[in-house]
């Protein structure tokens, strides 16, 4: 009888140890990398045994859902994925371990119109300028891409006065979703945030000379409950093996 139950006991102990090692990780992620994370997170959970709880919010801004505001309120996170310079600010504040910072992907800005509407020309600076001037309304996000559009892009094109009255910074919700609902004629946001939204037609990226490339990075908050497991997740998200999935969401791999 001892010989019969010993292998069963060994298996049971192994299962218990495996369960004990599994961690429940809370991951806060902002829009630009979210589509890639939603693809890769379940794959990582399946191979690691860890449970990932996802919390969505912008990298910056006044919205209570913004990651810095969540952390300021004392919300718990094991991993934060966000715009690189916003992450750097959290590192300066002592809220994220500087040694944990991992570069994930680069994101460029694109443009959408409501599905069924003609796609305007935006391949050159002159075409983009004309498209924005002709649009009845223009929307952009309250995160990194929208800050650039509002503070720099319109000025570079020499159309800031004309766009001031008909452009809107959309807080918290995806810009493409508002365009799909007919709230705005044209939407500007990071490509990876535009592509997953139904009801719009993706026109393309802004011309490279007018582009703003946003680096997405990740780190581990200083109060993380599972820093070792969090590091394993970040190593996976930045690994060469997952770059095809990252690029498929509209992001560009970080040169290594």
From TrEMBL:
Q: Name one Pfam family in it.
A: SBP_bac_11
- InterPro entries registered for this protein in UniProt: ModA/WtpA
This protein's UniProt keywords: Signal
Q: Which region is the signal sequence?
A: 1-22
Q: Is Repeat one of the keywords UniProt gives this record?
A: no
Q: Which domain of life is it from?
A: Bacteria
Query: What's the protein called, per UniProt?
Result: Substrate-binding domain-containing protein
Q: Which organism is it from?
A: Pseudomonas fakonensis
Q: What is the lineage of its organism?
A: Bacteria, Pseudomonadati, Pseudomonadota, Gammaproteobacteria, Pseudomonadales
